[in-house]
Design a protein that fits this description.
With 403 residues, the protein is of the alpha/beta class. Helix content is 38%, strand content 19%. The chain binds adenosine-5'-diphosphate (ADP).
């Protein structure tokens, strides 16, 4: 079974075609500047065909999907001989609200529920809906489609972890609560961590996943179920990130809005796009640039890095407390998988938990491995995430179950 995995943003659309026989990726690509002008990059991975990259008019997501399918079946750049070889489509959807605790077959009721979640995910859900509707339009209604939600894995959080301490009517009436994101990644990585530790089915296993990328979040996973996570109603909070501010006293917003006559939207844009390690350092949101600048003596770049490492360690400590212990800590995401210096700096804080890092092992990057020593009380792992594979697996399972 070949499955097309779609991750639609407001002006971009990423895709992978995955063959579930051996879970290999047959093609990967990206449409950008949808609704502006349009650009596609398509890369076949199995048959030695060349990469296709060009500007292409894409007024809406429908033209982007058309371009993707056109390239997937093209004799020159394609990886399938006809569209009928694509058995199903799996869509990443950002916010499932309280409606979705797992992946679901997309039907009218599902679309209505994704729509109901728009107030909770106003930036992403409309784009996800456009991606689904574009696929329907171009592929027809015979091809089954599945929605996989970023929030779903975190729906097992107990009320004490996900309730905001505001008047309870907002929790009850408006579903304002901590949801958490990167759920597909936290699920994949925590499962692999349990497997690596020989604790896959242990109901008392305690894993902390550190997903560290442009957006970063941590989760505490006990017996395979998420019990806490650092992002909230939106992906803005928790750790300071590439450009997002993370946890902040709301009074800071009031102060800035009053003093600089800024609107709420302007302040939100500042906190989403101009803050985090970029805002603190004034250098970059990219950790490689920050490392280089810090080495050259840039103190604010060093401060941004120090803040980030401190925050990760602080949240790890709080999750060890929440779970009354921790068996394994797993690093993933661009920084978690590749940032050896960041991993070392974070683990420096964790000696009190019995964490000991194997410095040689920690020099590796981008592959699944232990980076703690044999006698480390808590095992530390690097586990490359693969959200697209989870989406494809869920899609296959749901489609097969319907046969
Ligand atoms: P996204 O959240 O957009 O998926 P990624 O998971 O791809 O982001 O992570 C991007 C981050 O990973 C960037 O800050 C980048 O600097 C960092 N990164 C990538 N490679 C390295 C590396 N070799 N060393 C340190 N950081 C790295």
């Amino acid at each position: 079974m070949k499955i097309l995995v779609i991750n639609a943003g407001s002006s971009s659309l990423k895709y992978q075609l995955i063959d579930m026989e051996d879970e290999s990726i047959h093609a990967i690509g990206l449409c950008e500047r949808i609704g502006i002008d349009g650009h596609i990059k398509h890369k076949p991975l199995v048959n030695g065909k060349p990469v296709f990259e060009a500007d292409l008019s894409m007024p809406t997501h429908a033209e982007a999907i058309e371009a993707v399918l056109d390239k997937l079946v093209s004799p020159e750049y394609g990886v399938v001989s006809s569209m009928s070889e694509i058995s199903a489509v799996g869509h990443r959807v950002l916010h499932g609200g309280i409606e979705f605790a797992k992946s679901v077959f997309i039907d009218k009721a599902c679309m209505d529920a994704i729509e109901r979640c728009i107030p909770l995910g106003p930036l992403h859900n409309p784009a996800n809906i456009m991606g689904i509707e574009a696929c329907r339009k171009v592929m027809g209604d015979k091809v089954p489609m599945v929605a996989v939600f970023d929030t779903a894995f975190h729906m097992t959080m107990p009320a004490k972890a996900c309730t905001y301490a505001i008047p309870y009517e907002y929790t009850e009436k408006d579903n304002l609560r901590r949801y958490g994101f990167h759920g597909t990644s936290h699920r994949f990585v925590s499962e692999n961590a349990r497997r690596m530790l020989g604790k896959l089915d242990d109901p008392n296993s305690k894993i902390i996943v550190c997903h560290l990328g442009n957006g970063s979040s941590l989760s505490a996973v006990k017996g395979g179920k998420c019990v806490d996570t650092s992002m909230g109603l939106s992906p803005l909070v928790g750790l300071p990130m590439g450009t997002r501010c993370g946890d902040i006293d709301p009074t800071v917003l009031q102060f800035i809005m009053n003093k600089y006559s800024m609107t709420m939207d302007e302040v939100m844009t500042m906190m989403n796009k101009k803050s985090g390690v970029l805002g603190v350092s004034g250098v970059s949101s990219d950790f490689r640039d920050l490392g280089k600048a810090a080495e050259e003596g840039n103190e604010r770049a060093q401060l941004a890095l120090d803040m980030f490492h401190y925050w990760v360690a602080k949240v790890v400590g709080s999750y060890a407390a929440a779970m009354n212990g921790v068996d394994g800590i797993a690093f993933t995401g661009g920084i978690g998988e590749n940032g050896c210096d960041s991993r070392a700096a974070i683990c420096e804080y964790l000696g009190y938990l019995g964490v000991k890092i194997d410095e040689e092992a920690n020099k590796n990057r981008g592959k699944e491995m232990f980076i703690s020593t044999e006698d480390s009380k808590v095992k530390v792992m690097v586990i490359p995430t693969n959200e697209e594979l989870v989406i494809a697996r869920d899609t296959q399972a749901i489609v097969n179950a319907m046969k």
